[in-house]
């Protein structure tokens, strides 16, 4: 018996609050040896979650578009819910249960993913595809919330650091069904365990993340770490995209659209050049939204569909790497169009 085809039939997204300009951070900026590094060249704008806005709130707002287009029943009847939250509302567990309740769902599966990072949407697609194809349900929802910009990077002593001006917040949901209307053609996910743990939190004075202390925590960047991350990201994203292209019998330069995460402008340029694609076939929202972490791929894809840049029949490659390079993934979808 042939394996059922699973399709990504729609995405819906949410950006919190009004756009925050780069000037907001300029007023706090302090001298820093890393300020001119390509990793930290700020976008023109980004969005921040409100102080009382939870990841569950964000996912509820992101799902509104799906409900408007497909009806409440398609959400309430979801069989598989897969979530990723950059900063969980409660550190000991993910947001899947609360999101399911808020959306009126009673799924058979609720899975919270952490290791996927900026590639979490691709990883979620792989897990959902496997479950649906094996008979565990007819529909799946992938829900991704990026909320670190307004919660971590906007802390009083973190704001002056160059890293603070790059991230932005946003949320997205993707709806998958057992159908051939918008088929997932292939997915490649790779774990690079040797790099796990190289992304670290630092505080002054030093402490573990759960310990109380006077210093706010931020990402522990150094010149050496940045050099390694740039090299890994430049290599890993094209590698997984090429692997998928090989299996679907398509040259990267013939892809209709590339959609990636967006840590900075350098990665965006290097990735499309590695795949021999012009800028107009690589959708990003970096200047408007900054680094959206795991929400970047679905938000960019939603933008490309809404703008008419992706049309029915187009082959879209989604690719990303995570953290300091400990995970990467790519997925190809033949887009079926949005009703």
Provide a descriptive summary of the structure in words.
- This protein has 339 residues and is α/β, with parallel strands linked by helices.
- The chain has two domains: 6-181, Peroxisomal Thiolase, Chain A, domain 1 (3-Layer(aba) Sandwich); 185-334, Peroxisomal Thiolase, Chain A, domain 1.
- It has helices spanning 23-26, 55-70, 72-76, 96-102, 120-133, 148-151, 223-248, 265-274, 286-289, 296-306, and strands at 6-14, 20-21, 45-46, 80-85, 109-112, 139-146, 170-178, 184-191, 201-202, 218-219, 257-260, 282-283, 315-322, 327-334.
- A five-stranded mixed sheet has the order 1-7-6-4-5, sandwiched between helices.
- The two termini are 31 Å apart.
- The mean pLDDT is 95.
Which properties best describe this structure?
Peroxisomal Thiolase, Chain A, domain 1; five-stranded mixed beta sheet; alpha/beta; 2 domains; single chain; 339 residues; globular
């Amino acid at each position: 018996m042939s394996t059922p085809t699973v399709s990504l039939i729609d995405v819906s997204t949410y950006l919190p609050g009004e756009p925050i300009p780069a000037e907001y951070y300029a007023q706090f900026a302090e001298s820093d040896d890393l300020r001119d590094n390509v990793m930290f060249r700020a976008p023109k704008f980004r969005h921040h979650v409100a102080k009382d806005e939870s990841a569950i709130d964000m996912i509820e707002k992101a799902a509104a578009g799906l409900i408007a287009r497909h009806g409440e029943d398609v959400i309430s009847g979801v069989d598989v819910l897969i979530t990723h939250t950059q900063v969980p509302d409660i550190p000991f567990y993910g947001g899947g249960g609360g999101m399911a309740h808020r959306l009126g769902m009673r799924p058979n599966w609720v899975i919270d993913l952490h290791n996927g990072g900026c590639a979490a949407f691709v990883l979620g697609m792989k897990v959902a595809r496997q479950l649906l194809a094996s008979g565990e349900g007819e529909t799946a929802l992938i829900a991704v919330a990026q909320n670190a910009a307004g919660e971590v990077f906007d802390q009083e002593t973190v704001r002056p650091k160059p890293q603070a001006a790059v991230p932005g917040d946003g949320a997205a949901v993707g709806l998958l069904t057992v159908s051939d209307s918008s088929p997932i053609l292939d997915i490649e996910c790779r774990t690079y365990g040797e790099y796990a743990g190289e992304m670290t939190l630092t505080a002054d004075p030093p402490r573990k993340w759960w310990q109380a202390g006077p210093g706010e925590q931020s990402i522990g960047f150094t010149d050496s770490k940045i050099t390694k991350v740039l090299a890994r990201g430049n290599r890993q994203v094209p590698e997984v995209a090429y692997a998928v292209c090989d299996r679907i019998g398509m040259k990267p330069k013939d892809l209709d659209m590339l959609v990636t995460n967006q840590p900075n402008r350098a990665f965006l340029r290097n990735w499309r050049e590695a795949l021999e694609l012009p800028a107009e076939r690589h959708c990003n929202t970096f200047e408007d939204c900054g680094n959206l972490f795991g929400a970047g791929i679905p938000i960019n894809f939603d933008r490309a569909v809404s703008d008419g840049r992706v049309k029915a029949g187009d082959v879209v490659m989604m690719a990303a790497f995570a953290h300091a390079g400990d995970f990467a993934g790519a997925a190809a979808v033949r887009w079926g169009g949005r009703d």
